[in-house]
């Protein structure tokens, strides 16, 4: 049992018992001078007892959507037929309307006592008070009829509720899919950045600096390779005097040209 059901049950029972005690006390101690007021007060207590019993039996939760009022019962009559529950709600609403009118009638009765020698005394006399009471009963019955006539089929409400619930579930599912997709994208981007950092790849924003840096590294690496290589000395018996003479006569510019050709060849061979 939820807290809402406990609250409805306790408040309904306390209200019904309190109004019953008021009726018992008014019956025990009668005041012949204020019978009209006492009668009106008894009507109010009786209507309040009906409201408390209906609230305890249904424990209805009210939901308002625009001009519509939806009652969701949680009491021991929650599994009753929709027409029966509509009748209970009609009794509850008509009793509340009757209480409002009886409170006004009670004040009009006191106004009749105050204005004993005035024209107001004839309008709100004891005979006319009965007419006002009958008018209150008629208006309360009209209110109950409105409740019954404006009741909507329960199956229609369930269909609308199921459609709305399905649409909301689809929306939540799409939002969850979008969030998971974005999360996966962020994870992939973070992993790619980590891989680039491990490989020593600099972001594209510094492309010029990166190109120069790579070129310097290649030149330095090629120079180190040339320096580390040991020159192969040809066999003395295979060397001709012409080759020795050509090597002696080789100029510095020719040597630089050969080094440049070797750098270009290594640049083509190395991956970008």
Automatic annotation (TrEMBL):
<protein>
    <submittedName>
        <fullName>7TM_GPCR_Srx domain-containing protein</fullName>
    </submittedName>
</protein>
């Amino acid at each position: 049992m939820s807290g809402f059901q406990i609250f409805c049950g306790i408040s309904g029972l306390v209200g019904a018992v309190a109004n019953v005690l008021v009726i018992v006390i008014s019956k025990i101690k009668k005041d012949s001078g204020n019978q009209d007021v006492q009668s009106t007060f008894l009507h109010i207590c009786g209507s309040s007892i009906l409201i408390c019993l209906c609230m305890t039996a249904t424990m209805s939760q009210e939901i308002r959507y625009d001009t519509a009022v939806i009652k969701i019962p949680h009491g021991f009559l929650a599994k009753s037929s929709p027409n029966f529950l509509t009748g209970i709600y009609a009794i509850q609403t008509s009793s509340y309307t009757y209480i409002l009118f009886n409170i006004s009638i009670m004040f009009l009765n006191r106004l009749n006592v105050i204005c004993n020698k005035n024209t107001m005394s004839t309008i709100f006399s004891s005979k006319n008070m009965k007419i006002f009471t009958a008018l209150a009963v008629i208006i309360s019955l009209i209110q109950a009829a409105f409740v019954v006539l404006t009741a909507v089929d329960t199956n229609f409400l369930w269909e609308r509720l199921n459609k709305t619930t399905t649409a909301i579930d689809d929306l939540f599912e799409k939002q969850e899919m979008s969030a998971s997709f974005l999360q996966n994208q962020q994870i992939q981007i973070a992993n790619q950045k980590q891989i680039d950092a491990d490989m020593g790849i600099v972001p594209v924003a510094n492309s010029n600096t990166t190109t120069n840096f790579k070129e310097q590294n290649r030149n330095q690496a090629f120079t180190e390779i040339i320096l580390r290589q040991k020159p192969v000395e040809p066999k003395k018996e295979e060397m001709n005097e012409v080759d020795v003479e050509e090597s002696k006569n080789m100029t510095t510019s020719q040597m630089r040209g050969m080094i440049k050709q070797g750098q270009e060849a290594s640049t083509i061979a190395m991956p970008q």
